[in-house]
Design a protein that fits this description.
The protein is mainly beta and 449 residues long. It has two helices and 26 strands. The N terminus is likely disordered.
């Protein structure tokens, strides 16, 4: 690895760890005249899959770049052709490229498309399951950064631009851009609503004074409202623990999902929901009266720990031959991908309830419940379990013993015979009414004869 490569990687690592700097980008035409100017702080956020850890979030910023010191950013693209201009920013690490397409329609200009491309370089995307995979994320149909032709668009407030449903996004701040009619300096400013000091109803224009200060037009903020991702229904996973004798001492089949409330930057409360992924790191202990099941994911940064206890253990309950999940502990981090617009990015949360009687069954049997069970840990955090079958003590032949079904499953199983019985009863009533009507008509006929 030569000195230049090391320098590029060091610059990239710095970009990962630091906030995005505000950079100046210029695109020149054939006569070396600037045709497009963009000032902005830009960082990129994507999700990728790590070996044994599931999906993780990775974010990096474009390094420092200005007109006199371009650094490691290569600026390319095309000046206006048939109402379209393009700005492309590229850096060597991960072969990262961000291409922005600007469109002029009538007297209006706007950002109409973005394409992000990068390579999952294993030196950067550590433990990726798809090393050197080339990823391209196109986003079309946009109408943001809007400004009249000949004016520049400006927005200092930080915003994000979602590119897909998988968590790929651009984060922007301190934006000022003009893709059409640039003449040595930025034209009059069209300002986003978030930057306006005084809210105004609708779009308002402040007339220019005799000074050189340009007019300002209030426009909507060019960012999508961050919404927590909605996961697919969780899939059932098989978790087993083996004792020192090589036999299975705890077995659990379950699909787990976590729901947590959090505070956004505007002070409002939002709800994040995510699944415990397939194939987490499984560990725990088996005991005579207490057993624990521990699941780690997100690179071992997140944990679900379930403690199973026999009734009567430690004198907590009367011994009636039952077992239950007596405690559940969750550990998770408020990442921006899972908790969009959180006011506590990077905060590690530990939530526990040590006074539970969940998943209750008889010792020597397994507990089974296909219905959804909402286990509240606090007023803001809940573990949602479905398709559950668990036996933490006394398994026979490395498999579940006879299952005891939960009341919710019995209610569901009783619905069919009840419905059939009601239908048959209704049919009997209809037949009886029809018989009585028919008999009455026949009786009247004989009287006439």
């Amino acid at each position: 690895m030569n000195f230049k490569t090391i320098s590029v990687l060091l610059a990239f690592i710095t970009a990962v760890c630091a906030q995005a700097p505000t950079n100046q980008y210029e695109l020149k035409d054939a006569s070396n005249k600037t045709c497009l100017r963009a000032d902005m702080a830009l960082s990129i956020q994507v999700n990728y899959t790590k070996t044994n850890d599931g999906s993780v979030t990775f974010e990096w910023a474009l390094p420092a770049h200005n007109l006199t010191n371009p650094g490691d950013v290569t600026v390319g693209g095309s000046c206006e052709v048939n109402g379209t201009a393009q700005l492309t920013l590229s850096i060597p690490p991960a072969s990262t490229s961000v291409s922005m397409t600007f469109t002029m329609e009538g007297q209006d200009t706007y950002l109409s498309g973005v394409e992000l491309s990068y390579t999952e370089d294993p030196a950067i995307f550590v433990n990726t399951t798809t090393p050197n995979n080339n990823v391209t994320v196109p986003k079309t149909g946009l109408e943001v950064f809007e400004a009249p032709s000949g004016q520049s668009y400006k927005c200092n407030n930080q915003g994000s631009l979602a590119l897909d449903d998988a968590g790929s996004m651009l984060k922007l701040a301190n934006v000022q851009v003009q893709a059409f009619g640039f003449n040595e300096t930025f034209g009059e400013v069209t300002e986003c609503a978030a930057d306006a000091t005084t809210p105004a109803p609708g779009n308002t224009t402040t007339p220019a004074s005799n000074s050189t200060t340009p007019a300002v037009t209030t426009m909507p903020m060019p960012t999508t409202t961050p919404v927590p991702p909605t996961p697919e229904p969780p899939t059932q996973n098989n978790y087993t623990l083996t004792g020192g004798d090589g036999k299975v001492c705890l077995m659990a089949l379950m699909a787990l999902q976590i729901e947590a409330n959090y505070t956004k930057t505007d002070g409002k409360t939002a709800t994040a929901k995510w699944n415990v992924p397939a194939n987490p790191a499984v560990s725990g202990t088996c005991g005579n009266n207490t057993s624990t099941l521990e699941l780690k994911y997100d690179g071992n940064d997140s944990t679900v720990m379930i403690t199973f206890t026999k009734s009567g253990a430690s004198g907590l309950l009367q011994d009636d031959g039952k077992f239950m999940a007596s405690a559940i502990t969750l550990v998770y981090t408020e990442t921006s991908a899972r908790f969009p617009d959180t006011n506590n990015t990077g905060t590690v949360r530990t939530v526990a309830n040590t006074n539970l009687t969940a998943f209750e069954g008889s010792v020597g049997s397994s507990y089974k419940c296909m219905a959804e069970q909402d286990v509240s840990l606090t007023g803001d955090v809940m573990l949602i379990a479905t398709d559950v079958q668990v036996q933490p003590f006394g398994l026979s032949d490395n498999n579940f013993d006879t299952a005891e079904e939960c009341p919710a499953d019995n209610e569901i199983s009783n619905i069919v015979p009840i419905a059939v019985g009601c239908a048959l009863a209704g049919l009997v009533v209809i037949v009886l009414i029809a018989y009585l009507i028919g008999r009455r008509k026949s009786h009247k006929g004989y009287q006439q004869v």
